[in-house]
Amino acid sequence: MRWAVPEAEFMDPGTLGCQGCGGTLSMRLVLKELGDDAIAVLPACCWSIIDGPWPVHALNIPVFHTAFETAAVVATGIKAAKQIKGKDTTVVAWAGDGGTFDIGLQALSGAAERNEDIVFICYDNEAYMNTGIQRSSATPLGTWTTTTPDERPEPRPKKDIMGIMAAHRIPYAATATVAYPDDLSRKVRTALAAKGGMRFLHLLSACPPGWKMAADDAIEAMRRAVQTNVFPLYEVRDGREYKITHWPEAEVDVADYFSLQGRFAPLLADDALLNLVRNNVRERWWFLVERHQQSLRKASSPDGAHLH
After folding, report:
1. Whole-model pTM?
2. Count of CB atoms within 10 A of residue 300's CB?
3. Domain CATH code at residue 300
4. Does the pLDDT at position 302 exceed 80?
5. How confident is the model at residue 4 (pLDDT cuts 50, 70, 90)?
6. Is 9 among the domain residues?
């Protein structure tokens, strides 16, 4: 099988990423689509380490390291400076879930509300992995972390960051994962084409140490997340037009995804909690299906042409 992704490489080998790191694999694929006329803004996160020290860092584009909470606003400033110079350089803020869902949410929301012409990409490994696997608001219900141990696992469901971004009515938002590289690459190209406003990509990115699994199970874990609808693949345009981009061939139980990772041991040991999660996943999936079908109906109606 040959994937429809460019062969050019903009990331050098020998990064400081862990084996099987979904964030490292994601960066490699995204850079292939960005090309060399791009700038990356990295707040405090795993990628602050993975990139390596200057002047031998791994990315073959300019990189700005910035404070945890400031990825979106720094990217906004760099883009404005480029525009003043008459250049259309792509500026990407690349942050983990801590710098997106939590600490960086205020700057991200402000940039989205102003519809800044940047691409914000969250590689989501569902905890603060770089500082010791502490829970974040992206940590799923029933999950082990070092701050939510087996005796009292994560008590709250994962924050709906896509819902938050869609509520800002930005031009484009989408979910993706390297387990489906064609889908990811297409969404990066779509985001780049939607110039003139905020673009947001939410990438599920396996962390073998934090997820308590073997490194060579990383791709399979991300694939199962999609197959079980725990992490559906879809896109949202202007906060209103929803499109599911991958339809699982058959219903696969969520336990098939959870059982691959030791972090879900508390969840698998609690039938009531597991059933609650099952129901939450089904409800979220059918919500997306309804939005997808609603968007199709609007697009096919005489007064729905404005959606395109």
Report:
1. 0.95
2. 10
3. 3.40.50.970
4. no
5. confident
6. no
Q: How far apart are CA 90 and CA 36, in angstroms?
A: 9
HEC string for the chain: CCCCCCCCCCECCCCCCCCCCHHHHHHHHHHHHHCCCEEEEECCCHHHHHCCCCCCCCECCCEEECCCCCHHHHHHHHHHHHHHCCCCCEEEEEEECHHHHHCCHHHHHHHHHCCCCCEEEEEECCCECCCCCECCCCCCCCCCCCCCCCCCCCCCCCCCHHHHHHHCCCCEEEEECCCCHHHHHHHHHHHHHCCCCCEEEEEECCCHHHHCCCHHHHHHHHHHHHHCCCCCCEEEECCCEEEECCCCCCCCCCHHHHCCCHHHHHHHCCHHHHHHHHHHHHHHHHHHHHHHHHHHHHHHCHHHHHHC
Domain count within the chain: 1
43, 68 Cβ separation under 8 angstroms: yes
pLDDT tens, position by position, 5-62: 788 899 998 899 999 999 999 999 999 999 999 999 999 999 999 999 878 889 999 9
Which range marks the domain in which residue 69 is found?
22-307
